[in-house]
Amino acid sequence: xxxxxxxxRIIRFIVGGGSATLVHYxxxxxxxxxxxxxVVATSVGxxxxxxxxxxxxxxxxxxxxxxxxxxxxRYGVTxxxxxxxxxxxxxxxYRVAGMGIVISQILATAVVAVQNYFLYQKFxxxxxxxxxxx
Length: 134
Fold this sequence. Notes:
- The protein has 134 residues and is mostly helical.
- The protein has one domain.
- Helix content is 78%, strand content 0%.
- The protein has helices spanning 7-33, 38-61, 68-96, 101-124.
- The radius of gyration is 16 Å and the shape is elongated.
- The protein starts with 6 loop residues before the first helix and ends in a 10-residue tail after the last helix.
């Protein structure tokens, strides 16, 4: 049986991920304007955005019933993968391809956003049918 796509969840994921991305970009922008290397700045931005994103995804998007300790351990694995993916992609776009900082970060973010949705859904928060609706 093919499971129906939860459009409401995808919208909430985009809102949560988008706002976490804004947190990431704000931290990154502040650090760059303060003289911090762009790759270091995006690394710090990822961490700050990830903390914000965990709680948003846990409570608003996936409405997880997992205990925080278990969800945080799994989230930590996905953040590690996100962190590495983001930094590698950003460095490739920025340093190797010679793209600007903004376009490099936007492209890196787009790639890892798709990766994250599926990891959160299947690994971190584990889907459960909600009797009270989404």
